[in-house]
Structure formats: structure tokens, C-alpha cells
Amino acid sequence: MKIVSLFSGAGGLDLGLIQAGHEVVWANDFDADAVATYKKNIGNHIILGSIEDIPSSQIPSCDVVVGGFPCQGFSQANLLRFEKDKRNRLYLEFKRIITDKKPKYFLAENVRGILSLANGRAIEKIEKDFAAAGYRVKKKLFNVANFGVPQSRWRVVIAGTRNDLPETADFCFPVETHTNPSKAKKMGLKAWSQIGKALAKIPEPDEKHSLPNHVCSQYKVTNRNFTGHRWTDAEKPSPTILARGNGKGGVCAIQHPNNHRRMSIRESATIQTFPLDFEFVGKMNSCYRQVGNAVPVLFAYHLGLQLGSQNQSMKEAA
Questions:
Q1: Are 306 and 174 contacting, i.e. CB atoms less than 8 angstroms apart?
Q2: Overall number of domains in the chain
Q3: Residue 169 to residue 312: CA distance in whole angstroms
Q4: Domain that holds residue 90
Q5: What is the pLDDT, as a whole number, of residue 84?
Q6: 3-state secondary structure 23-34
Q7: Which residues of the chain fall below pLDDT 50?
Q8: pTM for the complete prediction?
Q9: What radius of gyration do the chain's Cα atoms show?
Q10: What is the set of active-site residues?
């Protein structure tokens, strides 16, 4: 299927969809480093700039629109003036593109906190707006660890199927392949992937290697019960790879499973299931941020497989 990608970042979502057999025909992001990373590893079809400045007519026709819009502007206080809050402008741009381009499907990824914003009224408004654009809308909360990603990372996927398509063509969310080791055998699923095993073959940054981006933050290891500072259990999935951290503009990298240092950019990207040769462009904090903002490639691959299944079903029905 032909895909338009909004808020593409370094391209984790797009890479997974491509690996599943789809073609990303156009992508966009406003971060110069992320766009440079995308071009270096995926393709030149990404456009640098604010989506607000790009008319719908300049975006090619597509089967699917994907992207993760920011949600900082959704609050109980501002729902009545929703469209006037500048922080909601990117959500409104996503809505504009699907309204104008009318793809068969859209997939919007977001943090799980979007479900509770404004006591749930924000997500209700989003679903109603997408429905008004001509789509049957559904949502689901996922832990990407349940798809083989060696990381506990909760994300919401909002999916839309265009109203004129038959209900048999409705997008179906992918089925989990992994679960908690204590339940795996009983459920007939694989056990969660462990961070220790995922990083076992990666040498120390100061050892001889040829890995790109294998440099790490010197931010000290503290082992406090606080996000980004917790002890890492090598036999469990990694804590969520972060895009923010120390409150001073820097990124707080998760502790290595040996808990002797912070994970390198390369190790963080491995936990996000990027290939070892995927090279990030920019200074250290920028690269860490690109990794932390990405959709894990393996999870995106499962979404892509499901899109392919839907497309095949439609062809067979026709």
C-alpha cells in the first residue's frame, strides 16, 4: 500500500511498514537532524518543514496516512477552545490531511496518557473529529513488549477505516505474539524478549568496534526509584526508552542491564529494534531524542503486516 507519513522523525514507524512490504511515498518532519537521519537510512522522499506550511495539494495520493501527533494541548480547560490552542495545531494538521486526501486507512500513534487527558474527553473529541472526517474509528492500548520488542513501552494506536469501504475491510489490530514468561506456555505465546540478551553481543563503547552511534551519556547512574534512574533488570524487557529526561534539555538514557553506565545511542536504538547499521545524524542529545521519539521498528512491522492482510482481503473480495 502507498503510505504518507506525518511527524516521521527518524523513521522507526516507516521502516517497519517498509519491511512489511509497503511503500512510503511521502514523509515529513520539522526536525533537521531527524530528516537527515531518515534520508541517510530510508530515502529522499521526506520533506523538511512544518506540516502547517505544506498544502494538501503538494502531498501525493495514498492508501494510508500514518503519524504520531503531539498531544500537549489537550486539557479539561481548553476543550471548549480546542482549535484555538496553538499546541493542538499538529493534531489538526493530521485531521486536515486525512480529510483532504481521503486514504483508505489512517493509523495515529500516541502515548497512553492521551486516554486520560481531560478525564477522557480529549480522546472522545479526537475520535469524533476523525469520525466526522469520514472514518470508522477504533483505538487500542498496546505494550510493544507483547510483540517481541525488548522494551516495556505502552502506546495507543488510533485506527480509521474509510466509511465507504465494507465493514469486512475494517482495520484489525495485530495479535500479540509475546507475553509475561509466567503466562507464556499456558497461552501458547513466546516469553518477553530480555534486554540483557538483546544487548549481549554489543561490545563496550570503549572496546574496538565498528558500530555507528555507539557512544553513551556520562550522566551518572543513581539507581533511584524514579523514571530514567531505576536499576535495569537484565532478565526483563527494558524500561521505556526516553526522549526527555533531566529537565535541562538533555536526555536521560536508560541504564545498561549491567547497571554500570547509561546505554549508548546504539544500544538504545537496538532496544527500539532499529538495525545495527541504522545511523543517526546529529549531536548526542539529538540522536538520543530521535531514538526515544521513534516507534519501535518491530511493532511497526506488525502494524504493516496487518495493513497488508487488510489490503489482500479487499482484493480478494473485489
A1: yes
A2: 1
A3: 10
A4: 2-178+296-317
A5: 55
A6: EEEEEEECCHHH
A7: 75-77, 80, 246-247
A8: 0.94
A9: 20
A10: 71
